[in-house]
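Case 140 in the screening queue. Each case pairs one protein sequence with one candidate compound; here the compound is adenosine-3',5'-cyclic-monophosphate. For every case the pipeline is the same: read the inputs, emit a complex structure as tokens, and attach any notable structural observations.

Predict complex for case 140.
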Amino acid sequence: MAVEHTLSIIKPDATRRNLTGKINAVIEEAGLRIVAQKRVALTRAQAEGFYAVHKERSFFGELVDFMISGPVVVQALEGENAVAKYREVMGATNPANADEGTIRKQFAESIEANSVHGSDSLENAAIEISYFFAQTEIVG
Ligand code: CMP
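Case 140 output:
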């Protein structure tokens, strides 16, 4: 296994309910290290650009509206096998299908308001981290 980086976003449903610390406790308990972090109000253009891969999907407009409905916390996570590890820690996209103990099982409200985002591959992790952070802002 190799040390990897992945992008995490704590979404507006979670910041609204003041769950940033509880979610990050689960992340850190799992052995992942937060090596970059900022709380931001995404612009519509930023949210559309970030989710551009989903722009043909029926839920795209609602997803963008939701992601700009409140602050988000964007983070780079570091750890052994971080991409797959974080996806395991998050649980399934739809909280109804998420395993016990996962972030989405514990905290998510719905498939859209599902509390967290995580990169789905090492290649996308690099793209997504660079969307929000300069290399100099990643401090391990
Ligand atoms: P995320 O991992 O951030 O990637 C895309 C997001 O679209 C996903 O989490 C969900 O929050 C959201 N979404 C909304 N509706 C759907 C859907 N029907 N299928 C998949 N993702 C959806």
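Case 140 observations:
- The pocket of adenosine-3',5'-cyclic-monophosphate is lined by residues 54, 59, 63, 93, 111-112, 114, 117 (CB under 6 Å).
- Helices lie at 12-16, 20-29, 44-50, 60-67, 82-90, 103-107, 122-132.
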